[in-house]
Protein: Signal recognition particle protein
Organism: Leptolyngbya iicbica LK
Amino acid sequence: LSERFDSAWKKLRGQDKISEANIQEALRDVRRALLEADVNLQVVKAFVAEVQAQALGAEVVSGVNPGQQFIKIVNDELTKLMGETNAPLAKAETAPTVILMAGLQGTGKTTATAKLALHLRKESRSAMMVATDVYRPAAVDQLITLGKQIDIPVFDLGTDANPVEIARQGVAKAKEDGIDTVIVDTAGRLQIDPKMMAELAQIKEAVQPDEVLLVVDAMTGQEAANLTRSFHEEIGITGAILTKMDGDSRGGAALSVRQISGQPIKFIGVGEKVEALQPFYPDRMASRILGMGDVLTLVEKAQEAVDIADAEKLQEKILEAKFDFDDFLKQTRLMKNMGSLGGIMKMIPGMAGKISDDQLQQGETQLRRVEAMIKSMTKEERKNPELLSSSPSRRRRIARGSGYQDKDVSKLVSDFQKMRTMMQQMGSGQMGMPGMGGGF
Ligand code: GDP
Ligand code: MG
């Protein structure tokens, strides 16, 4: 009842949907948070305007206000913008994979070169590092020392050779030695510099890298945007490493890099030690940049409650025997929201320990297949599963659309009918509520 009251009250005050008027304060908070996190001003403006336009009209879930709901949407969009999942390193079809490191001086290129080499070896990929920074007296030695420390070979020709030549020969040597991945460390300057760019471009031309990683210091702040633009326009990057994330920077540079280059952040550096490298996780970074963890938790809890309400509606439908493919899809999504199938199976009394990981995996694959097939159905077919029992041509169309075979669709349809019959029996009979722990 209080829930219904809440939604009626919201409607009265124009708070049931996100509108221009009801998120003014949240908008200000979000902008301030992003700027405080050192996201470039231009990037903030463009991003916030885009999210705002998208969010208008979105339903506000019970228990939160429009501003809070908006912040959650911002967080989701931030995560999406930064790539949703972790982007792995490139791997060339024929070894060696060549990685070119680029970035300003002092950002952590040389350190990151060693960190990457160590990371690769942990993935059973052999590595070699190439020292082309001939300008700073100690730079070559620095890489050699790191190489000794982690027992990874370093190729160098001292400080008198030409960097392009060193890179070329280094990659040739790696090929000869059957090395999996060769990482070319380069010289940086304190600022964007035409000579540095020209040399990088030449090295790139000479070694044809599979990956050009821009190394960006997380403390760079507003400048990260210009920096990325220059490197991306002049050299072309395929990804970035954000270093010094162990400091108190909120990491807004990540958003600038991503927004401007369109390329993913692949790793973050979290310390001076060679082990201090972590894969980049967009969701974690989004929350760190936004810095509004409390609001996010609140909205997530509220949303879970909505999912439960959904589940209850579903239960009613089952009892009334109106369960269709749409409901089925919703239910599988609900299961996904709640975690893996494995997690759910283990919550069912008596199930824990009875199912092997293999079986669980099969179950999850099966769910994905089913989802793909249902997505290829028309609205009408989803509402009326009977249409499919009687029409081979419909089933064929769905098979083609989803990339499965006719017999897979036929099986889905007949399984679904059986399930529905069973559900009806359970719903009306002595077997108790289906699917909620009892009745098995
Ligand atoms: P390069 O000039 O780009 O090659 O930068 P270096 O690799 O020589 O690193 C410059 C300084 O930053 C060194 O003192 C490193 O120890 C330090 N550094 C590099 N990465 C990180 C990191 O992720 N966290 C911290 N705290 N320091 C780092
Ligand atoms: Mg260096």
